[in-house]
């Protein structure tokens, strides 16, 4: 296991290099001059040029890219063009809010999606199964930004139950978490149903029932445990996506997370902030995937035996 974890950590290096190169290239070749955005379109040309030299924007592409990599290795992602503060400080000040939102959304998705999937599998083709699979399809198909706006309209404007935007209380968390958790819940429910249907038809499940075990014991102790591998895979991937994919939701609900910060930074051509934000999310996503792979070994002993 330790060798496997070490290999996965080493593989993280080329992934982060590739992500850094792609994001840096996109930002570099995107039209617009950060110096002009900071000083204004009517700023004198000599002042714009002086600011470009001060920020290092006059250097060639390859020099700027390697300077960024050299700083990233030491934890120095540069300073934000707009706030003048270190990028690392800005990101770590915003990341807890994004982590809180993603964690709340995945808890909602898991606590609702897995039970719905289990019941749908054990009551296949029943009215419950049909209704919830249709709702799951709707949940997967519904765009998050539209759902978020509709929730603001209903629960904030019409009913007045929840605040429309902001951060700091549990009430502020409910609508954003439900918005991004709905599609994840639908995916988990569908995957749980599919995986459980494969398992409940196995011979050892029939043997467990023939031994007189209760249906609850058969489902929870025998069927669910053997159906968990694909479910855990979906949960891990979706949690990683929630950390990096809550951009629109954070913008709609004025949630002070990394996603909203990156949207603002892209508009301002804030190269260091965008590059640092993408790098942070790529590292987080890779760590989540590594944790899921390690979890496989504790769910299925056959996988753990392969590492010995």
From TrEMBL:
Its main subcellular localisation, reduced to a broad class, is membrane
Gene3D superfamilies named in the record: MetI-like
- Output a single Gene Ontology CC term carried by this record: plasma membrane
Q: Which residues cross the membrane?
A: 9-29, 99-119, 131-158, 170-189, 228-258, 278-299
Q: Where in the cell is it found?
A: Cell membrane
Pfam families in alphabetical order = BPD_transp_1, BPD_transp_1_N
- Say if the entry is tagged with keyword Nuclease: no
GO MF assignments: nickel cation transmembrane transporter activity
What InterPro entries does the record tag this protein with? BPD_transp_1_N, MetI-like, MetI-like_sf, Opp2B
Tell me yes or no: is Nuclease among this UniProt entry's keywords: no
Membrane-topology annotation of the record: Multi-pass membrane protein
Keyword line: Cell membrane, Ion transport, Membrane, Nickel, Nickel transport, Transmembrane, Transmembrane helix, Transport
Every ABC transmembrane type-1 domain range: 95-296
| Family that this chain belongs to | Belongs to the binding-protein-dependent transport system permease family. OppBC subfamily.
PANTHER family in the cross-refs: DIPEPTIDE TRANSPORT SYSTEM PERMEASE PROTEIN DPPB-RELATED
Q: Mind telling me what this protein is named?
A: ABC transporter permease
Gene source species: Breznakiella homolactica
